[in-house]
Specification:
Layout lengths: L1 H39 L15 E5 L6 H5 L4 E2 L12 E2 L1 E4 L5 H8 L4 H7 L3 E2 L1
Antiparallel strand pairs: 1-2, 1-4, 3-5
Length: 126
């Protein structure tokens, strides 16, 4: 009789521990899902700014120093065809955002005077 009670008690404890293990596994899985969901929604994505481009460096490769020549987008290029210095009558380089073609640069420069364009250029061409 005692042997039967011990077997029954052992069997009962095994069932209980099996149920507890299942519950523990379910709880651990739920906690892992909650942590993953919290981590996934904890950060905001970086805002996307429409129409913004990286700054573009334009080099003046024209030979004339008149206002019309300096404002002409065809006289500017993305590569420098000469050397720049601290003195001179022509701009060397300007940095502009949202302007990636010579046509756009032509329209952009149309809003400035020769003096303003020279002020945008930290260096000059003789």
């Amino acid at each position: 009789m005692i042997c039967f009670k011990l077997k029954f008690l052992g069997s009962f404890l095994m069932q209980q521990s099996s149920v507890l293990m299942k519950k523990l596994k379910i709880n651990i899985a739920l906690i892992a899902m909650i942590v993953a969901a919290t981590a996934a929604f904890a950060f905001k994505p970086a805002p996307v700014v429409q129409g913004k481009h990286a700054p573009v460096n334009w080099f003046y490769n024209g030979t004339a120093s008149t206002e019309a020549a300096i404002k002409d987008g065809n006289n500017w290029d993305l590569s420098n065809a000469g050397s720049c210095s601290a003195a001179g009558t022509r701009p060397c380089e300007i940095t502009v955002e949202d302007v990636s073609t010579q046509e756009d640069l032509d329209a952009y420069l149309d809003g400035f005077t020769r003096a303003q364009i020279l002020a945008m250029s930290p260096n000059r061409k003789p």
